[in-house]
UniProtKB/TrEMBL annotation:
Lineage, opening ranks: Eukaryota, Metazoa, Chordata, Craniata, Vertebrata
Protein name, entry field: Importin-5
Length: 691
């Protein structure tokens, strides 16, 4: 707060003093450098132009002097970042670089005998490849010569790596300039060499630059595509490298399947080698004694090779199409499914799930044999293979709906219900219930009706058993899924669910009343959803006997709404449940509006956080939850915190729903809702960035 209140001009002076002062502790100097760069990045226009010309000139020469005096390389890099930031802001609208001394320093340093200065020049150029402004064409040969020379610096690996990154940054910054890309094509072998070398120095920054090129300027890779792909394959297959590096190497190939599919299809041999590589990664699973009955669905370990391999396969199948991918992968999968080691069978089934979307057309013709094969694995001796079989069935039920349901309803429903009986393996039970949800969501009503009795019997007995287990042992995983399965069946069966209503409603109300502990929030939310979906399915007449009880339970939760944490899963379930109750009760719902509208308006008013970050800040942000980034080039990214956006969208839908159902009964809220909604119809443009 104290820092924020210092005027901008004084900040520059003080920060520069701290950076310059070699007697100050290293940490304080580094912090001052970071703050100065941020100040120039965020508030340049407010602060810099108002400084007297001699102060501006002083700052420029001071910074260049500090670089030359600095002995610590990490500190020197931070000062180079300040110089790059200042240079970025000193290019006027016509592209004139208003800091000629900065350019001269760059040229002098890059050919200096002092390695530290050569590093500094490359770092500044990497950070701001647009530094030559409208003189770029004039300096093009010099730039190219300088990069080639640095890439061939035998004695200094750091210079080789930095120049490769700088070359990549320059190519990315000029992605629309075809003559330039052509002119710089002969730098690619040097970049590839640096990728290879840096990976074995435990540095993946050059490899990340290659992924960016594959994503943004794939055409730059065309003259040396074979070499690029071969290198990526070799790195991906090398188990001496870290998982992260191997996954990044695979990412080059997968990204090209999305951004340059036609180019990649010409290198069929590489694709044919990349596929087994992904499958090998998918086999990289850990034995885990507690897996079968762990009650927490831990998030997939997104850094794991297995998850990365599966996602790569899915994307590649979508990018290159099933005509190419299915014949290449089919035999591999068949062999894996016959392997005595459970990890291979698991990977084979997960691969089948992953390629369904991309190989849709080709798999449709042989779906019958695929389904019969997968169903066999619901009987596999290993629980994690049975889990993977449930996963494949659930995925196919979504990918091939509704044809899948029409063709295979009999065998699939029977097999999933049987798998749900697997009392010794909760994770398998829960996943069978999840597959059943996918199946019923897209199942035509007429197909489901003949199975209702049997479905309800199984779901009810499982629910009763699991409520008992919840009371005795506190386990909830299967119950969470079963409650959603019940909701899904009711949603599809509609009025045909009436005869079973009294079988479920007392237990469901009991869960909402008693599942109040923090770890049961998701169960409670799903149960609230289930009750409201059943109510909607059976209609007002049947539901009225419980309507007032249910409304009281909801109101009780609603009163505690303000105490709920922002990430409480109950919030989104509650908001949707209120809207369903409104549909069921019609005009009678009006009396509840005063309680419902407050939290709903609060959620609909969430303002997403946005930020403009440069590469340095990004490195600290990457692990932060809920942020998504768009690369704007020039080492800058635009970030938006997406957490909360989905809830905001749901809340807006619900407001519309209330207005539609209650008509004139909604009148007193019209003004505040309109005030909230109208601005949301606009996109905000700010400095050419889309918010």
């Amino acid at each position: 707060e104290t820092y924020e209140n210092i005027p901008g001009q004084s900040k520059i002076t003080f920060l520069l003093q701290a950076v310059r002062n070699a007697t100050v502790a290293e940490e304080a100097r580094q912090m001052a450098a970071v703050l100065l760069r941020r100040l120039l990045s965020a508030s340049f226009e407010e602060v810099y132009p108002t400084l007297p010309p001699e102060v501006q000139a002083g700052i420029k020469s001071e910074l260049l002097l500090i670089i030359q005096m600095e002995t610590q390389s990490s500190m020197r890099r931070k000062i180079c970042d300040i110089v790059a930031e200042l240079a970025r802001n000193l290019i006027d609208e016509d592209g004139n670089n208003q800091w000629p001394e900065g350019l001269k320093f760059l040229f002098d340093s890059v050919s200096s005998q002092n390695v530290g200065l050569r590093e500094a020049a490359l770092h500044i150029f990497w950070n701001f490849p647009g530094i030559f402004g409208n003189q770029q064409q004039h300096y093009l040969e010099v730039v190219k010569r300088m990069l080639v020379q640095c890439m061939q610096d035998e004695e200094n690996p750091t210079i080789r790596m930095l120049s490769a990154r700088a070359a990549a940054a320059f190519v990315l910054a000029n992605d629309q300039n075809l003559p330039l890309l052509k002119h710089f094509a002969d730098l690619l072998p040097g970049i590839l060499q640096a990728v290879n070398e840096s990976c074995y120095q435990n540095d993946d920054s050059v490899l990340k630059s290659l992924v960016e090129i594959a994503d943004t300027v794939p055409k730059y890779l065309r003259p040396h595509l074979e070499a690029t792909l071969q290198l990526s394959l070799t790195l991906c297959a090398d188990t001496n490298l870290s998982n992260m590096q191997r996954q990044l190497a695979l990412e080059v190939i997968v990204t090209l399947s999305e951004t340059a599919a036609a180019m990649l299809r010409r290198h069929i041999n590489i694709v044919a080698q990349a596929i087994p590589q992904m499958l090998t990664m998918m086999v990289d699973l850990e034995e885990d004694e507690d897996w079968a009955n762990s009650d927490e669905l831990e998030d997939d370990d997104f850094d794991s090779n297995a998850v990365a391999g599966e996602s790569a396969l899915d994307r590649m199948a979508c990018g290159l199409g099933g005509k190419l991918v299915l014949p290449m992968i089919k035999e591999h999968i068949m062999q894996m499914l016959q392997n005595p080691d459970w990890k291979y069978r698991h990977a084979g089934l997960m691969a089948l799930s992953a390629i369904g979307e991309g190989c849709h057309q080709q798999m449709e013709g042989i779906l019958n044999e695929i389904v019969n094969l997968v169903l066999l694995f619901l009987q596999d001796p290993h629980p994690r293979v049975r889990y993977a079989a449930c996963n494949a069935i659930g995925q196919m039920a979504t990918d091939f709906a509704p044809g899948f349901q029409k063709k295979f309803h009999e065998k699939v429903i029977a097999a999933l219900l049987q798998t749900m009986e697997d009392q010794d393996n909760q994770r398998v039970q829960a996943h069978a219930a999840a597959a059943l949800i996918n199946f019923t969501e897209d199942c035509p009503k007429s197909l489901l009706i003949p199975y209702l009795d049997n479905l309800v019997k199984h779901l009810h007995s499982t629910m009763v058993l699991k409520i008992q287990e919840l009371i005795e042992k506190g386990t909830k995983l299967v119950l969470e899924q079963v409650v959603t399965s019940i909701a899904s069946v009711a949603d599809t069966a509609e009025e045909k669910f009436v005869p079973y209503y009294d079988l479920f409603m007392p237990s469901l109300k009991h869960i909402v009343e008693n599942a109040v502990q923090k770890e049961l929030r998701l169960l409670r939310g799903k149960t609230i959803e289930c009750i409201s979906l059943i109510g909607l399915a059976v209609g007002k007449e049947k539901f009225m006997q419980d309507a007032s009880d249910v409304m009281q339970l909801l109101l009780k939760t609603q009163t505690a709404f303000n105490d709920l944490e922002d990430d409480d899963p109950q919030i989104s379930y509650m908001i949707s449940a209120w809207a369903r109750m409104c549909k069921i009760l019609g005009k009678e719902f009006q009396q509840y509006l005063p309680v419902v509208m407050g939290p709903l308006m609060k959620t609909a008013s969430i303002k997403p956080e946005v930020a403009l970050l440069d590469t340095q800040d990004m490195e600290n942000m990457s692990d932060d939850d809920g942020w998504e980034f768009v690369n704007l080039g020039d080492q800058q990214s635009f970030g938006i915190k997406t957490a909360g956006l989905e809830e905001k969208a749901t809340a807006c839908q619900m407001l519309v729903c209330y207005a539609k159902e209650l008509k004139e009964g909604f009148v007193e809220y019209t003004e505040q809702v309109v005030k909230l909604m109208v601005p949301l119809l606009k996109f905000y443009f700010h400095d050419d960035i889309l918010y």
